[in-house]
Design goal:
The protein contains 13 helices and two strands, in the order H-H-H-H-H-H-H-H-H-H-H-H-E-E-H. With about 325 residues, it is mainly alpha-helical. It has a two-stranded antiparallel sheet with strand order 1-2. Helix 3 packs antiparallel against helix 4. The chain is globular, with a radius of gyration of 20 Å.
């Protein structure tokens, strides 16, 4: 177990701003993964290939990505054993794969932009969601930002922290490789339906426990948030999460919806096509910028509770 590494990494992710210019010079490690996925996809997913070949090549691409990511992380992890202060260095490296600070700021930018103009807010929310945003009104922008915050609470924070605490740097690096592959090729489009199947299925598997854990952490955070309802959070999660089209995304989204009496989910457009997705929660749907800030406060409580759980692991589990 690597609870101490996870605890330090989570603290660093919160308090240590990394200049964007650094990633502009060398690229973020997730970008490196993305470049590799894009390069392999362009050579292994050709338009004239039969579906069976696409599925096979998508599995090969995923295997290569996971093995190379694992080897690179293990090389760094083992090399650091001979360096003084290795746990701090490993935690610093791991912290770049956590997204607490960036996620909160991106969602906060949407709330601030709503105070300026709908056009600016649409541009800001387009940075964090994949749906069409050019026609969204204030309530739709607010719901999109809150839904993204809830879902990415698992993918961007709890899931990578979970795998970091279990397996150290190799755990979080391999998780991010799988998650990045899913985000790039795990779509049900003609191009990726077969090629990205393995990536989508493996991403569902590695997020199964963290997504449910995130939902429970939102329930727990509702106990210490005077504007949230823990009982309703749990009941909404239990009732609505299994209805979500994703096996994992519904758990944090439904938990947040129930906690804050929001109505999330429902119809949304992707590339001009409207999808009628299940609704999460029976609360208000006419949400505003203040509701985004309220969701952010619950997110901060949830992430603080997660940090406390990791600290408890540091104290109870031998390092």
């Amino acid at each position: 177990m690597f609870f101490a590494t996870g605890f330090i990494a989570a603290i660093l992710d919160r308090i240590l701003p990394i200049p964007p210019s650094l990633w502009g010079r060398i690229g973020h490690p997730v970008q490196w993964m993305g470049w590799g996925i894009d390069w392999m996809e362009g050579r292994l997913n050709l338009p004239d290939m039969p579906a069976s070949d696409r599925r096979r090549n998508g599995t090969i691409m995923l295997q290569v990505l996971v093995v190379l990511s694992l080897l690179a992380a293990m090389l760094v992890h083992n090399a650091l054993k001979f360096v003084p202060g290795s746990i701090l260095i490993e935690a610093l490296i791991a912290s770049v794969f956590l997204a607490h600070r960036d996620l909160a700021q991106s969602v906060r930018n949407v709330a601030f932009a709503l105070g300026s103009s709908l056009e600016v807010a649409r541009k800001e929310v387009s940075n964090i969601v994949g749906r069409d945003t050019t026609e969204l009104d204030e309530a739709e922008i607010s719901r999109a930002a809150i839904e993204s915050l809830a879902e990415n609470s698992s993918d961007g924070l709890i899931a990578p922290l979970f795998w970091l605490c279990l397996f150290g740097l190799p755990g979080i690096v391999v998780y991010k490789a799988i998650n990045t592959a899913d985000s790039m090729v795990g779509h049900k489009s003609d191009r990726f339906l077969d090629f990205g199947r393995a990536s989508a299925q493996l991403d569902d598997l590695v997020n199964w426990v963290p997504a449910r854990l995130t939902g429970l952490l939102f329930v727990g955070a509702s106990f210490i948030n005077h504007r949230a309802d823990a009982r309703e959070s749990f009941e909404t999660m239990r009732r609505d999460a299994p209805r979500h089209v994703s096996p994992n995304a519904g758990w944090p989204e439904a938990a947040m919806a129930g906690a804050l009496n929001f109505g999330l989910g429902g119809p949304r457009a992707y590339k001009g096509e409207t999808l009628n997705l299940p609704r999460m929660g029976n609360g208000r749907r006419d949400l505003k910028a203040e509701d985004i800030h309220q969701a952010l406060r619950l997110f901060e409580g949830m992430s603080t509770l997660a940090l406390a759980v990791v600290l408890l692991g540091v104290m109870l589990v031998p390092g």
